[in-house]
Amino acid sequence: MAARANWKGHLRLSLVSCSVGLYPAVSSSSHLKCHTINRETGNRIKQLIVDSVTDEPVDREDQIKGCEVAKDELVPIEGDELDEIALESTHTINIEAFCRRSEVDERYLDRPYYLAAEDKVSREAFAVIRDAMKKKGMAGLGRVVIYKRERVVLLEPYGKGLLATLLRYHDEIRSPTAFFEDMPDGKPTDEMRSLAEELIDRSTRKFDPKTFEDRYEGALIALVRGKATKPAKGGKGGKASAVKASGNVVNLMEALKRSIASEKSETPKSGSRKSAGKSTARSSGGSSSQKTAARKTKKAA
Question: Domain limits at 262?
Fold first, then answer.
């Protein structure tokens, strides 16, 4: 397996156990790496860890954990003391319960991993657990210690393996009440709702993550490439033109109507080549309905 496991141990369901590896399902290696540098020299800045009181540098071997029990009162914890409190989940993911995947609130999902059998001996036991979960339509709940912290993990069949998603704890999730309680209910008319529904219908398509890309990352890469090939000779480069606003919105109803008119003009009509040709010919001069919509829009603006 090309990827390197972030965690290795065992997956256990009652008396059935198998050797498994936990592999990251997401990657940020393709992102452009930017560092903090010295403006004068162009060299990278080196961060130095110092004592907050004495300002003296602290070597790595002298850096340990300190848990805060009161303000400015820290209890030191040595590495071997942490090893002594190691839990079973440090080496074993024990499936403690099962639930329907739909019952898990999306807010609790944190980070996905792939869970795969680590050797040929473990494949059969792994497949038994995976296939039983798939047939029953259930997801498993267990615990795993990763990055010095025990996390709840959601396990669900995914292809030939399992998708293991780390879950957030309940006390990490904020209640929406504080954010939504002061929001007005609003009373949209049937016509407004109908126009909004039409916009949804026109924009509905099968989800394809490949159609989305990080446009900021692309613009940043282009900026870096441009500066790398053409070093600036004093002065600042031109700023990218801002996207212009689409005109003044008179009210919500007018905005919905403009959106529908815009969607209609941009959506290609289906049919034969002949009808497509007619559509193209009409678009060059503008259809009567489009002209009417344009006049209304101009008048409203």
Answer: 190-198+249-301
